[in-house]
């Protein structure tokens, strides 16, 4: 059996310690973590915008460069998973529950309460709402995931290195990455992974509870959420036991099937032509405004600047914080693809699907709001169900949505246990089930405890603050990767 490394014990201790702070002094922990996050956003907002845009440009460069034909594996090696299964898995891990959680809430919230530039409730606010939602869930978010996933996949399958962030830095720092410095880097990555997943489990439990409370008058409280977490934990443990090629793959395919049914129902029942027209119009606006939005900090308008910090900088730091988990998982399932195929798949397909999803659910939600439903006034976890309540077959759609949230919930937790197992067993491609079970129980316990104490927001603040040091690590990974690519070219690998 593969043994766990010191990274396992140190990260577990740090995570438990921070969780205890959330239990013992939740208000103080939230105040301090919130202040740190606010300081980082204010002082490093320019840096977040710059680095994420550089990641986008780097990905586009690789697609059109001669490096694009290099395979993530040995020459001639075939992909491990079919194209559809691969896309399903990366999408489920990368966005999944977030699209269901925010599909209605984000556009409606921007439209009704705080659009970036227009007056709330106006036609201009609709255009603003959809465009900024596209921006926050578009190519920039997926470029963050693509960079770390590409670098790790390249070193794992091309150079047979362990699936560790530290191993990807060996071309720059050599054997130092096998010592203390490398362990610190891996600890940051593991910490970001477990805290990111614990917060997601917490949010997932609140949305499932919000849905069944809205539909069936079930109490919306911690004890119901605890039962939901326990059920999901048992289900993802079963999936974990079956392994990557069965459990996660089957669940991811099921996710996409349920999501497709829900999407098509909403498209047909909702204002179909208006949705299609809005999608087309907003894609054009998105492309046209992309350079400006990528660098917008509004230093001369305090209100607009605060909006950028609260939304764009927040989202960029959130995606950066999630990058270790999502990136490592995408890397693991991308063996055998060329760099060009990889970037095209990771960058373009999920971005287009996200745009279609937000157009359909966002415009339908805005229409329901305009027709008298107070979608914007509902808690964010109930916004989707409030919209469905205005539809024919609303109950059927809501039940489908709860099922979809649950399967995304299980897939995220299952993927996370696999990634955590990899990172704490020296990059093993098939981590022991006992290690995965340990991490599964840990993340579920942390989520439940923080829901009980109200410390979930504080832990999320800590996670986003950890995105700053990890972004420096990602920059070094890009430099290390490019150095290795140049050597590949010299050897004329094809």
UniProtKB/TrEMBL annotation:
Entry GO MF terms: transmembrane transporter activity
Stated name of the protein: BCCT family transporter
Stored InterPro entries: BCCT_CS, BCCT_transptr
Highest rank taxon of the organism: Bacteria
Family named by the database record: Belongs to the BCCT transporter (TC 2.A.15) family.
Keyword Transmembrane: yes
Membrane topology: Multi-pass membrane protein
Keywords for this protein: Cell membrane, Membrane, Transmembrane, Transmembrane helix, Transport
Subcellular location, principal: membrane
Pfam families reported in the protein's UniProt record: BCCT
PROSITE patterns per the UniProt record, alphabetical: BCCT
GO cellular component, one term: plasma membrane
